Amino acid sequence: MRLLCRVAIWPLGVISLVSFAAAVAVARNDKEKNEEALQRKVDQIFAAYDKPDSPGCALGVIRDGNFIYKKGYGAGSLELGVPLTPQSVFYLGSISKQFTAASVVLAAEQGSLSLDDDIRKYVPEIPSYGKTITLREMLHHTSGFRDILSLLFLAGRNSEDIHPTNELLDLVSRQKDLNFVPGDEFLYSNTNYFLMSVVIKRTTGKTLSQFAEENIFKPLGMTHTRFYDDRSVVLPGRVAGYAPRSVGGFRVDWSTNFDMVGGGGLMSSVDDLLLWDRNFFDNKLGKGSFLKEMQTPGVLNNGKQIEYALGLFISKYRGLPTVEHAGANFGYRTELLRFPQQKFSVVCLCNLATSNPGRLSYEVADLYLEGQLTADSPPASAAKVDPQPFTGWYRNLESHSSLQLSAADSDMVAFGTHFKPRDANHFVAAPGAEISFDRAQSGGTRLTVSVQDGAPQIYERFEPLKPSPENLAQYAGEYKSAELQAAYRFAVKDGKLTLATNWGESVDLQATVRDEFQSPVGVAIVFRRDAAGHVTGCDLFAGRVRNIFFTRTAK
Questions:
Q1: How many CB atoms are closer than 10 A to CB 288?
Q2: Which of 8, 148, 401, 408 is deepest in the core (most CB within 10 A)?
């Protein structure tokens, strides 16, 4: 009887095992189908780049420290017909900053320096501005240093020039003023991170490239990553950067001469950045405080916490915490986006100047994190939004910069970028980039421009002046800047004030308010007068650079 009982029970166990296995197989099959469906949607996001005759992007989607999808879209070299892959090596631009910051943190842990040291302890060439500027303030972009890339542009230098470190240091050291009192504001400046490369060399005896190789890249196995500080080096897998031509097709947009590192200069691939991203969940570098130090946001003198930590933006997207940074230089556009609570990241590296890897990365995150993200504000109906009443000129009183808004259907266009309506008073271009309007009590219109790499900027509507040629003539003449070692010449031509430099064609200037003009590239020019009312000089404002003084030397 016992035997019969056992014989009767055995088939039930077999049936249970078979049923369980079948259920597992069905679940696995459903998961695979879901992953394949997500991958098809991702491919649709990148469809515009997925062709052999166009530059494009390399993508990596990471969950729990491993790729769940990676792919290349487009060409890494139009000349050679080489496709982009996750192994392709890109110029990362400002994503480099987190690696520079990591090097400084590791050097501090090794006793070579302290983040609270005065920069002049290591770089005494920098003049005293009356207040200590710490390495920590520099890493948080609260130092007040004028941006070195903007200074190079205003001085007439370009990416084809060779920039020795001593020459760059000389340029920084000639600056007589800061943009603001250290710690008072957050304003992104590449000078901060360029100087970090100098600090690393002077405190450790190793270049930033050598130090990062020994302390970051080698320990993590990042074999295709390095700081590009030697323009003669061969970099296997390096892809070219491109920009579109106005007549169609593409032009090469990169320079082998540009070997300044710290604020940029890192070369890497999607595959290698997986290893870096993984380290933020399972740290293998330095001491136990490394990750906390890297991801602690800065604090201003007034106690306000900013969103910038050490080379990383600490923010939120649709209700979820994010850690991210983008990069842009030459024809390269890059994004490294992390959702730490979900252990989910997106790496998007592109070699086309008009690409927007930030937007692309967030669209990928929208797909994979659906159900975990809070709902977006419903987009405003295009039929209900008329941006036309907001079009016109606006001016920022602090930076003296002016912008002109135009309308394209329901979009607001500013800085050459389309801002989509979120509602009747808010227009959004990408996460962190927004224009919002409110009605001032005076009856005019005030707008706020919010961008990730700076404090919100308030602009007031105004009507630009239309000075006569006779009035413009009082500004004509040559002006020189000791800080830039550059000369500008203003002249009146065809009823407009023009600006000519030693390195480019003359450009027409837009009059804004009395004694103020705006260049086509966003440089604001404010002329100075003496007590008698004679024009004696001018100040330049260019986003990350304020109050560059030019003395009038000739009429």
A1: 8
A2: 148
Calculate Rg over the CA atoms of the chain: 27
Q: How far is it, in rounded angstroms, from Cα 464 to Cα 446?
A: 16
CA 60 to each of CA 170, 219, 273, 277: distance values in angstroms, whole numbers, following the listed order: 40, 22, 9, 11
Q: How confident is the model at residue 377 (pLDDT cuts 50, 70, 90)?
A: low
Q: In the 8-state DSSP scheme, what is residue 353? A: T
**305-338: burial string, b at 16+ Cβ within 10 Å, e else:** ebbbbbbbbbbebeebebbbbbbbbbbbbbbbbb
**Segment holding 279, helix H or strand E:** helix 270-279
Can you tell me the distance from the alpha carbon of 196 to that of 383, in angstroms, rounded to the nearest whole number? 51
Rounded Cα distance, 182 and 57, in Å: 38
Q: Residue 274: phi, psi to the nearest 5? A: -60, -45
Strand partners, 538: 527, 550
Confidence of residue 10 (pLDDT cuts 50, 70, 90): very low
The position carrying tokens 């520079």 is 100
Residue among 231, 239, 236, 188 nearest 209 (CA): 231
14 has pLDDT over 80: no
Q: Are 242 and 253 in contact (CB under 8 A)?
A: yes
pLDDT of residue 16: 58
Quote the Cα angle for 174-543-255, to 5°: 75
Token pair 């939120």 is found at 316
Q: Is the C-alpha dihedral spanning 214, 220, 221, 224 positive or negative?
A: negative
Position 192, amino acid: N
Q: How far is CA 389 from CA 226, 411, 425, in A?
A: 50, 12, 11
Helix (H) or strand (E) holding 392: strand 392-395
Provide the 3-class DSSP secondary structure of residue 193: helix
Element (H, E) at 7: helix 2-45
How far apart CA 359 and CA 218 sit, in angstroms, is 32
Place of tokens 């240093």: 145
Strand 242-244 with 320-329, pairing:
unpaired
The two tokens of residue 497 are 């004030």
Dist. CA 385–CA 118, nearest whole Å: 52
Mean pLDDT (whole number) for 536-551 = 96
What single letter denotes the amino acid at residue 63?
R
DSSP lists the bridge partners of residue 250 as: 244
φ and ψ at 383, to 5 degrees?
A: -70, -25
pLDDT in tens, 394-447: 888 888 888 889 998 888 888 778 888 888 788 887 776 888 887 665 555 788
Map residue 403 onto helix, strand or coil. strand
Task: Please state, rounded to an integer, the average pLDDT across all residues of the chain.
Answer: 91
Distance (Å, rounded) from C-alpha 538 to C-alpha 524? 10
Query: How many whole angstroms separate alpha carbon 175 and alpha carbon 178?
Result: 8
